[in-house]
Design goal:
10 strands; six-stranded antiparallel beta sheet; four-stranded mixed beta sheet; elongated; mainly beta; 163 residues; 2 helices
């Protein structure tokens, strides 16, 4: 009888020690909010973005067929290296750009865990891209709010005019 009471008490203690409030209500996703803008009156008819040297099925990060002079996209940065490369396909042409960044992990909360925080250090690009402007070098989970409020981390100016 005494052993049943001890087992019952242990079961009650185990069940009551579980944290029912372990829901994560904060974002732990960190994305680089990027605005792709065409020069002049040329629209970006379609845009596809892949990770650099990532050409397997499923490696496409974004495929957007909306025709507009500016297209906003949220892109992931690497947590394993200090440089992330992207290949941009716009209006049937392709180009690449690389983002050099520093990264550290920050605790969001016990229930959400850790999230990477980045600081942009340098940018490099190839021919289709005219230039890249850094508007906010800090990329963290709050960057999603920038996406919702028309803000961005960088603007990529595409040179889509035919040569």
């Amino acid at each position: 009888m005494q052993s049943r009471l001890i087992i019952l008490l242990l079961v009650i203690m185990f069940i009551s020690s579980c944290n029912n409030g372990s829901h994560c209500y904060e974002s732990s996703e960190t994305l680089l909010v990027t605005n792709f803008t065409a020069d002049g009156k040329i629209n970006v008819d379609s845009i596809m973005v892949r990770g650099y040297n990532r050409f397997a099925k499923g490696d496409t990060l974004v495929f957007n067929r909306v025709s507009a002079t500016a297209v906003k996209i949220a892109l992931p940065l690497s947590v394993s290296t200090d440089t992330t490369g992207f290949v941009v396909f716009a209006n049937g042409r392709s180009s690449s750009f690389w983002v050099k960044h520093s990264m550290n992990f920050q605790l969001i909360s016990q229930s959400c865990g850790f999230a990477p925080n980045y600081e942009l250090i340098a940018l490099r690009h190839s021919s289709l891209i005219d230039s890249i402007k850094v508007l906010d070098p800090v990329v963290n989970p709050k960057s999603a709010e920038k996406y919702a409020t028309n803000g961005q981390n960088i603007t990529v100016y595409l040179h889509l005019a035919t040569p």
